[in-house]
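C-alpha cells please, single chain.
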Amino acid sequence: MFISVVVPLKNEEENVAKMHEELKNIFRKEKLQGEFIFIDDGSSDKTLIELKKLKPIKIISFRKNFGQTAAMDAGIKAAQGEIIITMDGDLQNDPADIPKLLKKLEEGYDIVSGWRKDRKDSFSKKFLSRGADLLRGFLIKDGINDSGCSLKVYRAECFRDVDLYGEMHRFIPAVLKISGFKIGEVVVNHRPRMAGVTKYNFKRVIKGFLDMLSVWFWRKFSARPLHLFGSIGMLSFVLGSGLLIWMFIARIFLREAISNRIWPTIGIFMVLMGFQFLVFGLLADILIKIFHKVRNERPYNIREIIENK
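Here you go.
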C-alpha cells in the first residue's frame, strides 16, 4: 500500500523540519511505503529554503499565496498513492495518529477524519469553530464532529472527480458523502502550537460560511435545482396572486379605495418575482445537465458491478 502525505504550508519555517522528521519516523516504525508532498503556499519567510534541505520530499511551490484549499488540491492531484493523508504543517496534528486512522480505514471506510476532542487552541478559535460545527451539522449533515481537523485519510478514488476551491477543504467529507462514500472518525491528539502564528481569522470564517451554503445547495439540489427555485417561485406567485385577488374584491365588491395602498404594488411584485424564480429554476436545471454532460459524469456513484454467472 503506497501512501501519499499532503501537507500545505505557509510561513512555517520553524516547523517543517520537525514535521518531516516525525513523518519519516512513523513511516519507518510502521513499515509504511509512501511519499511526502509539502506545498509552499507563497510563504514570505524561509519555509521554502528549509523544505529544500529535506529528503525524501516532493515540494510544490506556489508563486503567491492561493490559500490552504488550493494548496491541498495541488498536493492531492500530485499524489501517487492509493491512500492520501492530509494534515496541517503547524505540528498541531500528530503524525503518530496515522496508524490509528489507517486501521479505521481498513474497516471498510473511504474517508477517516480526525476528531480533535481535546483542542489546544485559544478560546475564541474554539468558540468560532464550535459555532461553525453546529451550523454545519444542521445544514450539510456530514456525520462527523470536527470537519476543521485537517488530519484525514482518504482512498485515492475519492478525488477522481473532485476539484477544491474557496475554503472547501473543510467540507471534503460532506462533498464525498454526497457521492456515497463512507465516512469514519477517530479521536486524535491535538498539540499546542509551539512556533509560527495561526492563519485562522474572521475572513476565513466568512469564506467558510459561504462555501458551507454552496455545499448545502449541492447536497440538497444539485440534481434538481428547479425544486428549490420553483418552490420559491410558486410560493411568491400564489401569495402575490392572493394579494391581488384580495385588492380586486375590496375595490369591486366592497367599494374600498386602493389607490393609496401599497398592497397592489406588492402583489404585482411578488407575481413577477414568482415568474422570475421559475425561469431561474429552469435555467439552473439546464445548466446542471450541461455541467454533468461536459464533465462526462452522472449524478450518482457506482461502487462496483457484480456479475455472477
